[in-house]
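Troubleshooting entry. Yesterday's outputs looked truncated, so today I'm pasting the complete records for two proteins to confirm everything comes through intact. If either block looks cut off, that's the bug. Protein one:
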Amino acid sequence: MAMLADLVPARELGRWIGYSGFVFAFSSIAGPLVGGVFTEHASWRWAFLVNLPLGAVALSIVARKLRLPARRSPHRIDWWGAALAIAAVTCIVFFTSWGGSREPWGSALIVLLGVGIVVFITALVVRERRAPEPILPPRVFRSSVARVTLLMNVTVGLMFFAALYFVSAYLQFVIGVNPGDAGLYLIPIMFGSVLGTMIVGRLMHRSGRYRIYPIVGTVIAAGGAILLLRLDASSGAWEALFTGGILGFGMGLVMQVLILAIQNSVELRDIGVATSMSMFGRQFGGAVGLALLGSIFNDRLAVWVDRLVPARFGLTAADLRGKPETLRGLPAGVKRDVAVAFSNALHTVFLVFIPIAVLSVVLALLLRDAPLREHSLADAPGDDLAVALEGAILEP
């Protein structure tokens, strides 16, 4: 995304973001399919090992084909800023993942993690204010567009990745879809996402504006989140797919627009860091959201399994989580009980989607519109290029 912003003016970027969204959607569909095949027929470890050859191909293409205007200049890497950011995020993920499930909220470990979050974030803020070349430049946060889009990326990333994960869990444990086929059932979510991205890319290209699309997209996504509450043990797979498609379409109108908005709001030299912060916010929202919602899900699943599944079968929530194959040897009546337990636990998770969706709508309303930039880094002439490249590392 940073490369696109370097090569294409923001006014033209909407169309190219649409193309990028199509590639993202294709890979997001292929990923669960391949991962399901690995899980079912080989080892889940191949879901990670496959990234090695793919990464090598990507690096080769970039090294051989990418040509950007460049000017070498000395830089200092903000090692302390990076270390503090990693420490803070690590504490946040474990805090939300372990709290209330693996460890009681009042346990010494959870309290220690909470203290670590406060300490590391405070230290990070102090460090970034003093660092010669901060990894998170404070000047980026002076833009209201940057602040709003970064927050929106967290909430949107949470909803998008959580929807993929928990709709897949619903299909496998409530409907009974095989893990290898679950990726196919996620196609409507990804198709809705890419359709929304393609449409909004064309519209932004014509109008030169972007604010209205995140507003419309978050409202549609909120409607999809409300429809998720209707799913229960008696619902069909088509209902989950239709609902997921609506939510995905809403997300498609938002996600790529947020990247364009922040790229357009910062100086040319900050496009790279602004893009990475935006993508990090989305991934951070997905990681923390999955951890937090997973903790809620695990807690409610344990309650419902104890209530609904006969004790003589000796099943616990831990026996079922992430193990759809466990259902194959159970009597039909017990399978129904397990399906209802999963459905009830997922209902609580989908209920938590609602305030997150409402917060996304509120943030979208706060987003300020601005004319899209008519030039790119590659267009910047002479001295302008030197200023734009100041603070950026680009290899010829």
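Protein two, checking that the full record survives here as well:
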Amino acid sequence: MKFKIKRSDGHFDIFEVKVTPHMSVLEALFQIQDEQDSTLAFRYSCRGAVCGSCALLINKKQRLACRTQVSEIAGERVLAPAAFGPLVRPLLKTGDDILIEPLPNLPVVKDLIVDWEPFFKHYRDMQPWFIGNGTKTETEMLMSQADLEKVEKYAACIQCCICYGACPVVSRNKDFPGPAALAKAWRFYADTRNSDTEAILKRVDIKNGVWACNEVYRCVEVCPKKVPPTNAITGFMRNIIKHKFKAIF
């Protein structure tokens, strides 16, 4: 199987990989690094779809390399949207090779390694932590099962940057926080034990906040953990409008 890999200087190198049963894209990259080019740079950690470190653009789709099976994408033909706007340029992938590129919307450090700092800056700006409501320390802060279900799917985020790399708004507006940061903000806003809800609304109710979202659901499509960031963003929109009406009346 041929792997076509984008390097730091923008050119593509082609490697022949001896594919074994159940081989992941990450395992193929290990084989290339071990046997053909020790300078090939890529990031990984857990190898079990938990840490999110190995997120890449594979055949023009944002995916985890450790979770993507080579056999499932061999000979894949892909038509994917580029940045959303007046002119939408389609991203095409044809041929029998497997195309590997660094995650979009982030600066390239070397080969397939990108700098995640822009992503984490927006993440920190959302202040993704819990602020209690003053309950006495000796008393448990209980949640109903229904309330728990409202937030647990957003807590499943592994901060892999895949949604950030797929977001058409991020591709043209680096001030947009991105889907993961806004979804995490919703996780704490929707938590019935959190007392910081008004402050969270203020943080997302800005020009480059939730209102910048195009609602094309690319983030929902690519998330490996089935987190629905767009649902969180539209939830914020509804609650911001409700909050402003309450303030008036």
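Both blocks look complete. Sanity check on protein two: The mean pLDDT is 90.
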